[in-house]
Amino acid sequence: MAKVKPVTGGRPGSGKSSGSKKGLWRSLKRRLLQLLLVILLAPPVLTVIYSVVPPVSTLMIGRYVQFLWVDRQWVPLDEISPNLIRSVITSEDSGFCKNHGVEWDALQDQVEALSEGEKPRGASTITMQTAKNLFLWGDRSYIRKGLELPLALMLDAILSKKRVLEIYLNIAEWGEGIFGAEAAAQAWFGKPAKDLTRTEAARLATALPNPLGRNPAKPSGGHRRLAATNLARVTGAGPIFGCVLGK
Q1: How many CB atoms lie within 10 A of CB 189?
Q2: Domain boundaries along the sequence of the chain
């Protein structure tokens, strides 16, 4: 008579099932770690590439994906009017040549304003805006603002001030589908960016905070006043443009 072997384990196949689950979990963790590594390495690797290759912004990529019209004509910084360079630095980041991508004092002021229940007013530098345009999304959020800080510090460490400004002026939005100084100058004034007058440059610079709502060619009364204020500030700005225009 055959002997019946005692059952010593659990359900048939339970060991195999448990092993496959563990293997699946290990594979998933490995994939997640690989994805995290790619996310961490992508910005510095792309920044090194962008030091010699003209980049596109995430907003431009979004329009390309949706098959929407994009007008961007890359030009080197020396083919952009010094008038526009002065107006943009004065309007967007007067400490551009001195800071390391982040204005910590201005940022602290905004944090304090927020803690007191006041509405924060930006505190973004040109380098932070460049980081946002290259790597992040457009909607305002504290998560995005927090990501801007290390990205801006990285851009400032890898790129020269001239290259940061050159990238910014070539990917900034100046109207629906209009990106960069050359496309903006052609669209709004019918001339190359290198030929922009002081008044035209001031109107373009003060359109940047609201590029879809401000028309540099036909500015509203409020826009005209902003441009006039910008012109006055540029005149009295002093030596704040030396890192890009020399003394």
Answers
A1: 18
A2: 29-239
